[in-house]
Amino acid sequence: MDPLTHTATGLFLSRAGCKRWTPLATPILLLAANAPDIDIVTLAGGRLNYLHYHRHLTHSLIAMPLMALGTVALVRFVSRKSISWTGAFFAALLAVASHLLLDWTNVYGIRMLLPFSPRWLHLDFTNVYDLWLWVLFLVCIAGPFLGKLVGGEIGGRARAKAIHGRGFAWLALIVLLLYTCGRGVLHSRAVAELDSRLYEDSRPVRTLAVPGPANPWRWGGVVETDTFYATGDVDLLTDFDPTHATIFHKPPPDPAIDAAERLPEFREFLQFCLYPLWRVSPAPDIENGKLVEVIDMRFGSPLTPAFMVSATLDAHLQPVASSFQFGLNRKR
């Protein structure tokens, strides 16, 4: 999930009662809820390096205690104030766990079983950015201040703010859980819709329903068959028509693909790419050269590629140039 969602979750964990576990619990929880994303520093080594290390060991189960302990030690060192190490550690551990669980719900996935397994785990329930969660968190963050104005004359402003803060925190955490579960139910329905159709008389080999950032009933459908990918939106409030899907054919076997697969950029990308679509076309400005591309269909298509790697090969299938892209790049 995005940093805003992780930070708000850490804040609500503090307000819900974890702040009583130790002094300085709130800064500890806020930092621990974001600690696994320290892998952002690997971007200094380039985009492909970041792809390799993003959601890597810092997002694994085995590293959770280290991430929690490191956060506690950092807050203790910077603040130079005493804390309850046991309470602080378990509060931080809870916040780190919340980060892993939230990232697990995304299409991007998480490698929480490293170093024992490099497998990407993903539930595909929520988008990395979810507008409804932002609205929920905004309401529950502002709620205690409104509650203080309403209830301040009854039980004292500080006490009223604490009571309302705890109540809104629990509300946010409970609604977050219920919302994610509801997304899971809708995801199952979207996948069932995609699985139950024929696409140009072909049955799906596997299907994917990609969540959007706003409408829980609208999903991006990705269907893989033996010879092509079909993409189209699935609106659970209307009937799904597979004849409206856009078809992207897979290329036939090509020595250029075999040559590209041996390049380090392609090997790295294919470990991440779960729905790869290969494309081979003549290379511009190189006689008998080939342009080889792989697009991850989870995040775009040849019309709007987002995650992709490409290489230009000469007539002897030797690499001339290669590149990796992430982020939407609309082609006209």
Descriptive overview:
This protein has 332 residues and is an alpha+beta fold. It has 3 domains: 3-182, no CATH class; 192-244, no CATH class; 251-325, no CATH class. The protein is built from 9 helices and 8 strands. Strands 1-2-3-4 form a 4-stranded antiparallel β-sheet, with helices on one face. A 4-stranded antiparallel β-sheet has the order 5-6-7-8, with helices on one face. β5 (276-282) and β6 form a beta hairpin. It is globular, with a radius of gyration of 24 Å. The model has no long low-confidence stretch (mean pLDDT 92).
Terminus-to-terminus distance: 30 Å
Strand-residue fraction? 15-25%
Order of helices and strands: HHHHHHHEEEEHHEEEE
The residue-averaged pLDDT reads 92
Cα gyration radius (Å) = 24 Å
Fraction of helical residues:
40-55%
Overall number of domains: 3
Main sheet overview = 4 strands, antiparallel
Coarse shape: globular
Widest β-sheet, arrangement of strands: 1-2-3-4
Residue stretches low in confidence (pLDDT < 50, at least 5 long) are: none
Output the structural class. Answer: alpha+beta
Instruction: Compute the number of strand runs.
Output: 8
The helix tally amounts to: 9
Defining traits:
332 residues, alpha+beta, 3 domains, four-stranded antiparallel beta sheet, 8 strands
Can you lay out the helices and strands and say which pair or pack?
Elements: H1 3-16, H2 25-32, H3 47-53, H4 64-79, H5 85-104, H6 131-155, H7 157-195, E1 206-211, E2 218-224, E3 228-235, E4 246-249, H8 255-261, H9 264-272, E5 276-282, E6 290-296, E7 308-313, E8 319-325
Antiparallel strand pairs: 1-2, 2-3, 3-4, 5-6, 6-7, 7-8
Helix pairs in contact: 1-2, 1-5, 1-6, 1-7, 2-4, 2-5, 4-5, 6-7
